[in-house]
Design a protein that fits this description.
It is a single chain. The protein contains 15 helices and 22 strands. The chain has about 450 residues and is an alpha/beta fold. Among the domains are: about 120 residues, NAD(P)-binding Rossmann-like Domain (Rossmann fold), CATH 3.40.50; about 80 residues, Regulator of K+ conductance, C-terminal domain (Alpha-Beta Plaits, 2-Layer Sandwich), CATH 3.30.70.1450; about 90 residues, NAD(P)-binding Rossmann-like Domain (Rossmann fold, 3-Layer(aba) Sandwich), CATH 3.40.50. A six-stranded parallel sheet has the order 3-2-1-4-5-6, sandwiched between helices. A six-stranded parallel sheet has the order 14-13-12-15-16-17, with helices on both faces. Strands 7-8-11-9-10 form a five-stranded antiparallel sheet. Strand 13, helix 10 and strand 14 form a beta-alpha-beta unit. The radius of gyration is 22 Å and the shape is globular. About 0% of the residues have low confidence.
């Protein structure tokens, strides 16, 4: 698959690394040779120092034969313009990163398609959705709902209170049990488990279940004592914070602490009193946090542009008794450190945006793709075609590649967990987890 990425910034370089794992033909364009030279020599891609809004340069990159053109420069107008040109020159699909929330309105989708922009990516909105998913369940590190909750994936840190530790999974998660453990992150190791694997203390375990059994999962992992989030304190009032607060449930009481007084004035214009109280101050000031009720706060969300500040602020909030913390960590080098410090939910906008774009490179009927950053694994929702190989045999006889597991499926709107005897049917939505496996191998099973 031929993919052109315009913009060797955070999202573009991360996406290039992600896509290069699958042996795609990738060209990364940027008009700065310095940014291109900073890329690792081990990446399997070509670079082109040129402007993405130059027709000549786009032709030099071979845009007329490209399957996907992705514009992720910091300039929204430049992204839109380059996508329009790329589509006109023959690109099959185009994706533009935007900064304007108004452009995401569903009624504008067809309008942008007529301009040549197949899809829009607004990272702040995607990050806000992940933040709120983490806040709705204080005992969960990560939650992903499939088909409105017909299936639910929960990433949970296991503590001493868990009753399912040190037992082979075949004894605690059989065909008749209402959950499957589909991935385990243990230290720096990622495990796609089989029946003989065991859950250990401090594992980050990914469970696949259905909505009605979420309370059961909460019980067996020993998280019933975690209080639900009602009071939320947000440090940093940038675009991600605004989008998160605007989409938080109404029952949550939110305070935003922002150090810039002019930004505070703007936040008061963007948000009404019911959505949030805006406080001008430094979110690292313990006296201020105490005065504003940190002791009665169930969740602390650090969304400044500085990863170190966010990590330290979350550690401080934990020391002051806040159980649920969320940190925006844009520096990938700090992600594993934040995880080792037990920060909680980690938000990385470029990883979220890259996952959203990732699905467009797949030929099979794929509804959703996520890259589980903490576990270094992919999870995708595949829909098999009529006569696809995956529909011809029970799952146990399919000979799935090592590092792949099928977590569950949705059939006629109902979530079903997959066992070895399950027969997948054409039209099912199947959740596939894989680690260190070329996604194209999985595609061949579903086409």
């Amino acid at each position: 698959m031929k993919i052109i990425i315009a913009g060797a910034y955070a999202i573009g370089t991360y996406l290039a690394q992600l896509l290069s794992r699958n042996n795609n033909d990738i060209i990364l364009m940027d008009d700065s040779s310095d940014r291109l030279e900073q890329l690792g020599a081990d990446l399997d891609l070509m670079t082109l120092c040129a402007s993405c809004t130059s027709i000549t340069s786009l032709r030099d990159a071979g845009v007329e034969k490209s399957d996907l053109f992705i514009a992720v420069t910091p300039d929204e107008s430049r992204n839109m313009t380059s996508c329009t040109l790329a589509k006109a020159l023959g690109a099959k699909k185009t994706v533009a990163k935007i900064d304007n929330f108004e452009y995401t309105q569903p009624e504008l989708e067809q309008f942008f398609r007529t301009l040549g922009v197949t899809s829009l990516i607004y990272p702040e909105m995607l990050a806000a959705k992940d933040i709120n998913n983490g806040l709705k369940m204080s005992w969960v590190r990560q939650r992903w709902d499939v088909h409105g909750g017909a299936l639910v994936m929960l990433g949970i840190k296991l503590r001493e209170t868990s009753e399912i530790l040190n037992e082979p999974l075949k004894n605690i998660s059989g065909p008749n049990d209402p959950y499957h453990v589909v991935a385990i992150k243990r230290g720096d190791e990622t495990i796609i488990p089989n029946g003989n694997d065991e859950l250990k203390l401090y594992d980050l375990a990914y469970f696949m279940t259905t909505r009605q059994y979420i309370p059961y999962i909460r019980k067996i992992v020993g998280k019933e004592h975690y209080v639900d989030v009602k009071n939320v304190m947000v440090m940093g009032g940038g675009r991600t914070a605004v989008r998160a607060v605007k989409t938080m449930p109404e029952y949550m009481d939110v305070k935003i602490i922002e150090i810039d007084d002019k930004r505070c004035e703007h936040l008061n214009e963007l948000l009404n009193e019911k959505q949030a109280m805006v406080i001008n101050g430094d979110g690292r000031d313990i006296a201020l946090l105490t005065e504003e009720g940190i002791k009665n706060t169930q969740a602390f969300v650090a969304l400044t542009g500085n990863a170190e500040t966010n990590i330290l602020a979350c550690l401080t909030a934990k020391r002051l008794g806040v159980r649920k913390t969320v940190a925006m960590v844009e520096n990938m080098d700090y992600v594993s450190m934040a995880e080792s410090l037990d920060i909680g939910t980690i938000i990385n906008k470029k990883a979220i945006a890259a996952s959203h774009i990732y699905q467009m490179m797949l030929d099979a009927n794929v509804q959703n793709v996520r890259f589980l950053m903490n576990a270094n694994a992919d999870v995708a929702e595949f829909i098999p075609s009529e006569g696809a190989k995956v529909t011809t045999k029970p799952v146990k006889d399919l000979g799935l590649p090592y590092g792949v597991t099928l977590g569950g499926l949705v059939r006629n709107g109902e979530g079903v967990l997959i066992s070895g005897n399950t027969r997948i049917e054409a039209g099912d939505s199947v959740m596939v987890f894989c680690h260190n496996v070329n996604m194209k191998k999985i595609e061949n099973l579903f086409n």
